[in-house]
Write a structure and sequence with these properties.
heterodimer; A: about 700 residues; alpha/beta; Nucleotidyltransferase, domain 5; eleven-stranded mixed β-sheet; nine-stranded mixed β-sheet; about 25% strand; B: about 550 residues; alpha+beta; 12 helices; 22 strands; 5-oxoprolinase (ATP-hydrolyzing) activity (chain B); Oxoprolinase-like (chain B)
């Protein structure tokens, strides 16, 4: 059996998979932020006590965690030092220098994780091609190591210029540090993120160093706790890239697990796509404070070679860049708790959020500003008596009062029109984000399905699908524990990238062979650390551009032996991809390749794929009632059927307008659309099908 | 009550802004030149059929206020009735457009299915080179008139029915140093206008002409009203300030920068007439350029929070005497006018500090924007390295100036590793300069030092900097930052260079840029002792300076 658990900010979610019958049991407990392992143990113990879990039967434990993210967001990582090439001490402070908001001169840059006083310089120099221009000054290196040893640091990052091209100096510096400052964790940029652009690489390496001691302790504690319970199975950790790795590898590169939970959520969407026969999926996760949007092409989640953490209002350029592969998610400040207000006679929503405390006005916990959730309640989409499965009552009067006061009266609108305005403006910002993820990145939404989850996702998905001409919306079962389910379907894999800037012509196959040989040797070493045996399934890709461009396009390259025509193939692949992405290409222009990637998947993965959830019996009349809900198509507040999701059987369908209620969320089915339950148990809305 | 409901208006307005942003995304992703792709030195805009600006992408402010005039001017040469679907009118004229030749505007009409004109998508991008005396077409020294600055393109239909006119293109590319980059950026510019047109058409189809047209009227009306309201909140009066630029090349005197800002009845008039005369060097500001940064400055000080459009343009007026430095007459040379934008802002800042002290800050560090170029001996390839060395912000009314952040315009730097990979240079250091930030209750940001060595003979550097002679001022008792220096290190010997020189370089030469520190805000004696101690700990301020300038005691620094 496999146990998967995702420790999030509010809840710790569990999914237990029994391969014998493919069934999955899901449950959740409140997270204990100070000692995350406690909630985990409580949740497992309760299950053991109830006889639902035999620790000795567990053969894999899969885990997604926010520990690394929180350490960065709350600046609670280890006291960390940084060692740079002499003359470049300020690499973190200087950064890329662009304001994330042009019209704000009172803003500040992200606060680096290492302050200037904790940054040390050492004389050394490597050229872009890896040639040593100045050897590492051993005496200086020894002196710096001694200061670090005596400085009370728990961790140190080493990031020298062009170390991606030649790691010798960083390695030597690490040796000296290891000898002089035993017990201090060492992260070298050539190991953590051997990619060019010194600020981004240094930022990544420093983040790795900053979270490493914490992640070490956390994973050790987790392992102990599981063993205490009698679970001896190896623990696997979800990386931001969507691959599971061993504890040993997660500890070696903790910066790779920063987006652990969201990555698992996207994997769940991929699995749902497989169940529903759609390889192309747009993912839409809308929670309390933000919405996260992603894409899956041919069953494979889109990834990005870098992303930012700790951004201000989700604005690009305001956070700390991390050059590690991650499932590509666009996050915007539009969630159920996003606050609505008027400005210049218009409606504005977010990016600030009422959060969980005080929460939307309708929570009755002191929130007075209207939020998206308040609008959804006023519009009749939410059931005040069945929020979170009835665990929480919503106060419609409070929501109405807030919207009336802050939106309706100032704009001279009726209450429903005002609430509709808030709902639509939130939709518009999500539509804009979805457009970026789809059309701007060369994806035709008409060929995709939209998988919506999170507490608020299914409320907005129908409108979003219409705006983008997406023909089908899927609301997965068990969406409330999506990341935990996603873990069950994850692959065990390792992925690496490296920078080698190369003018790519047809005669360069040998250089490509050498680069991939180096990369794949590293991969094999990491795979061995995960206990991977035998042939690895390796997928390759590269970032390329027309010489002179500054942004690269990442393209997949063929696997297998690299022959004399490999470079020519790579060129062709790039020209084709460029045309797909931008609508034109330039076959005569010289091409440059900058970064090289390889991903290896280990055998015996996706243990829990194809699971079945215990859910609704699908008996009786699924329509359990009727209430008024707002649809402009039908002239405003409209009697709308309320459907109990758990009573909806495969094959049955209901035409919109309808509201499908389940514990974690409510799905709004628009007039003209039709909802049904698939054989796999997912809700599927066919957009425009009931017209 | 307007004809259009608030919900629709909100959504349509957001869509206009998002179209302009999307155009920028397309332009950046497919551009070739560093200025565009890393520096975001470009703008995108959406215009209605009357040629009024409806929305502008949030990129460089360098074209704020300039773009509407450029569009109007382009359409004077090629009137709308001569335009067909897929055509684009292109100009880089300094007077008609963005103030110097490297800024090339692409104006594309958008037609609906019935071939009726519904508006324009427009973008402008800073090109790496437009020919002329020196690489980058931005030299100051020795460039006395525009004819030496490269190719001047009066508005022409460079794109006809979606395709570049091959003859015109040949003429243009024959005149520039890096034709493949210019061509690549041209393609990206055409692409961006296509993307915008597609979205605009969809929006029209979705909402219908009536809704869109009344939305446009409403957007312009409300934007103007909002901007007026914010300007009215400023104390009325005339506020003046005087500053200067170092010179207009080696051996010349300062260029005086004088501004008088009048705030009256919700309108701001920014008048540079009392400034010096236009100069015989590539530094002059054409009025469109002056207007761009005057608009930006007033936007900041009035706190205008509405995306830019024609409505806002109505309430910020920029004036300068014709023939003055800030309203130069053709054929004034203007390649290096970018060096003036920070000073335009500094002058407005100094004036507005009298009206709204809490919104003002000490003067910026300024910048260095050198262009290196030549033919690489090792590869035989022609190269141009465009660099942006960006210093600190002045102290602000409630916190220190940001370190190493782009002032006024908004560009990213180019990574050292990228520069060294693409050009025959070695960069020896890039670091903050201790004790350079103007002291104050809130300290100015530090200057930045960057040392660049030539690895190839026969290179030229075109310097574009300032604040070598007049230090960035402090405000309300805050001290000035240290002045800037540019030093040529040859065989161990140091030679001071002017801020706007053109120099031939040899292999092994090092050009060392040492930017000014930014100005402080408030009396340094009132700076918190903790802040002084932390500055010393981090090395922004030396112990000696902490004692001498901030009056720190040993106990303070312990």
């Amino acid at each position: 059996m496999q146990i998967a658990f995702d420790i999030g900010g509010t809840f710790t979610d569990f999914a237990l998979h029994d391969p014998a019958d493919g069934r999955v049991a899901i449950w959740k407990v409140h997270t204990t932020p100070r000692e995350p392992a406690r909630a985990l143990l409580d949740g497992l113990r309760a299950r053991v006590a109830a006889g639902g879990l035999r620790p000795e039967a567990i053969d894999a434990a899969l885990h997604a965690t926010t520990i690394a993210t929180n350490a960065i967001l709350e600046r609670k990582g280890a006291r960390t030092a940084l060692v740079t090439t002499a003359g470049f001490r300020d690499v973190l402070l200087i950064g890329r220098q662009k304001r994330y908001d042009t019209n704000n001169l009172h803003l500040d840059k992200p606060r680096p994780l290492v302050r200037r006083a904790d940054t040390f310089e050492v004389t050394e120099r490597v050229a872009p091609d890896g040639t040593v221009l100045k050897p590492l000054d051993e005496a200086e290196a020894e002196a710096v190591a001694a200061r670090i040893a005596g400085g009370g640091y728990a961790s140190v990052a080493v990031a020298f210029l062009h170390a991606y091209a030649n790691p010798a100096h960083e390695r030597r510096m690490a040796e000296i540090l290891a000898a002089r400052a035993p017990g201090v964790r060492i992260s070298a940029s050539s190991e953590v993120a051997p990619k060019w652009r010194e600020y981004e690489r240094t930022s990544t390496t420093v983040a790795n160093a900053y979270v490493a001691p914490l992640v070490d302790g956390y994973l050790a504690e987790l392992g102990r706790s599981l063993r205490e319970l009698g679970i001896g199975a190896e623990l696997s950790i979800m990386q931001s890239s969507g691959g599971l790795v061993s504890v040993e590898l997660a500890r070696a590169h903790p910066v790779r697990i920063v987006e652990s939970g969201p990555a698992a959520g996207v994997l769940m969407c991929a699995e749902v796509g497989r169940e529903e026969g759609c390889g192309h999926v747009m993912t839409f996760d809308m929670g309390g404070t933000t919405a996260k949007l992603g894409a899956i092409d041919d069953g494979v989640p889109a990834t990005t070679p870098s992303f930012e953490v700790d951004a201000v209002n989700y604005r690009k350029g305001s956070g700390l860049p991390l050059s590690v592969t991650a499932i590509d998610l666009l996050e915007i400040g539009a969630g159920g708790g996003s606050i609505a207000r008027t400005r210049m006679g218009l409606i504005a929503v977010g990016p600030d959020s009422a959060g969980a405390e005080p929460g939307p006005a309708c929570y009755g916990r002191g929130g007075t500003e209207p939020t998206v959730t308040d609008a959804n309640l006023v519009l009749g989409y939410l059931n005040p008596d069945f929020f979170n499965g009835g665990a929480q009552r919503l106060e419609r009067a409070a929501a109405a009062e807030a919207i009336e006061r802050a939106i309706a009266r100032p704009l001279g609108l009726s209450l429903e029109q005002a609430a509709w305005g808030v709902h639509s403006v939130a939709n518009a910002s999500m539509e804009r984000a979805m457009r970026i993820v789809s059309i701007e990145r060369g994806r035709d939404p008409r060929r995709y399905a939209l998988v919506a989850f999170g507490g608020a996702g299914p409320l907005h998905a129908g409108r979003l699908a219409r705006a983008l001409e997406i023909p089908r919306v899927v609301v997965p079962r068990g969406a409330g524990v999506g990341s935990a389910l996603g873990l069950l379907t994850a692959e065990r894999k390792v992925d690496l990238g490296i920078t080698r800037v190369l003018r790519l012509d047809a005669g360069q196959s040998e250089a490509l062979r050498a680069t991939f040989a180096e990369l794949e040797a590293r991969l094999a070493a990491e795979a061995r650390r995960m206990g991977g045996k035998g042939e690895l399934a390796v997928r390759r890709s590269a970032s390329m551009r027309y010489a002179g461009q500054g942004y690269e396009l990442r393209v997949d390259l063929p696997s297998g032996p690299i022959g004399a025509d490999y470079a020519a193939t790579a060129l062709r692949v790039f020209h084709d991809a460029y045309r797909r992405e931008y609508g034109y290409n330039d076959p005569d222009a010289p091409v440059e390749a900058t970064d090289w990637y390889a991903v290896a998947t280990l055998p015996g993965t996706r243990a829990g794929a194809g699971f079945r959830l215990d859910g609704g019996a699908g008996s009786g009349d699924p329509v359990v009632g009727e209430r008024l809900a707002f649809f402009p198509e039908t002239g405003g507040m409209t009697p709308t059927r309320v459907v109990n999701r758990y009573a909806l059987a495969p094959g049955q369908s209901v035409a919109g307008p309808a509201l499908v209620e389940e514990r974690e969320s409510t799905t709004v089915v628009l007039p003209g659309d039709r909802v049904s339950v698939s054989a796999a148990g997912n809700l599927v809305i066919a957009i425009g099908d009931a017209r | 009550m307007s004809a259009i409901d608030p919900v629709t208006l909100t959504v349509v307005w957001n869509s206009f802004v998002s179209i302009a942003d999307e155009m920028g995304g397309a332009l950046r992703r497919t551009a070739f030149s560093e200025a565009v792709r890393e520096g975001e030195d470009f703008s995108t805009g959406l215009f209605d059929r009357q040629g009024r600006l409806i929305a502008q992408g949030n990129f460089t402010p360098g074209h704020l206020g300039a773009m509407p005039y450029a569009v109007r001017n382009a359409l004077r040469y090629v009137p709308p009735e001569q335009l067909e679907p897929g055509d684009m009118v292109v100009t880089n004229d300094s007077f008609l457009g963005g103030g110097h030749f490297p800024d090339v505007f692409f104006v594309a009409p958008v037609f609906d299915g019935a071939r009726r004109l519904i508006g324009y998508t427009v973008n402008t991008a800073h090109h790496v080179d437009m020919g002329g005396a020196h690489p980058g077409s931005e030299a100051v020294q020795g460039v006395t008139e525009a004819f030496a600055e490269g190719l001047r393109i009066l508005p022409v239909k460079l794109v006809r029915r979606g395709e570049f006119d091959p003859d015109l293109l040949r003429v243009i590319l024959a005149n520039v140093r890096l034709p493949e980059k210019v061509r690549g950026d041209f393609l990206a510019q055409r692409n961006a206008n296509h993307v915008g047109a597609r979205r605009l058409l969809r929006l029209y189809a979705e909402y219908g002409e009536n809704v869109i047209e009344s939305a446009i009227e409403e957007i312009l009306r409300r934007s103007e009203a909002r901007a007026r309201e914010l300007l009215r909140a400023l104390p009325e009066g005339t506020y003046s300030f005087e500053d200067c630029l170092d010179d207009h090349g080696p051996g010349t005197g300062p260029v005086s920068v004088r501004v008088d800002i009048t705030i009256e009845d919700g309108v701001a008039t920014v008048d540079f007439s009392r400034s010096g005369d236009q100069v015989p060097a590539g530094l002059n500001c054409y009025i469109n350029y002056t207007r761009a940064y005057a608009s930006f400055g007033m936007r900041i000080f009035a706190g205008i929070d509405v995306p830019n459009n024609a409505g806002i343009e109505r309430v910020i007026r920029t004036v300068a005497r014709e023939g003055s430095f800030f309203n130069a007459r053709y054929p004034a040379a203007s390649g290096g006018r970018a060096s003036c934008q920070i000073r335009i802002f500094d002058a407005i800042n100094g004036a507005m500090a009298q009206a709204v002290p809490e919104r003002a800050m000490g003067a910026f560090s300024h910048w260095a924007n050198p262009k290196f170029g030549g033919v690489d001996e090792a590869t035989g390839r022609r190269w141009i390295m465009y660099d942006l060395i960006l210093g600190g912000f002045g102290g602000r009314s409630w916190k220190d100036g940001a370190e190493a952040l782009c002032p006024v315009f908004n560009c990213a730097n180019v990574p050292v590793e990228v520069h060294e990979t693409g050009n025959p240079v070695r960069i020896h250091r890039l670091q903050l300069i201790q004790d350079s930030g103007g002291p104050g209750r809130f300290r100015g940001g530090c200057g930045l030092r960057k040392d660049v060595e030539m690895l190839s003979d026969g290179a030229t550097v075109v310097l574009l900097g300032d604040r070598h002679k007049t230090a960035p001022y402090g405000l309300f008792g805050g001290g000035p930052g240290t002045p800037a220096r540019t030093v040529l290190i040859r065989d161990g010997e140091e030679t001071e260079l002017g801020s706007k020189e053109v120099r031939r370089l040899r292999r092994g030469d090092i050009v060392s840029f040492r930017l000014a520190g930014a100005g402080g805000y408030g009396d340094p004696a009132s700076r918190s002792r903790e802040a002084v101690r932390e500055d010393v700990r981090d090395g922004f301020v030396s112990r000696e300076a902490a004692r001498a300038v901030y009056g720190a005691t040993d106990a303070d620094l312990a």
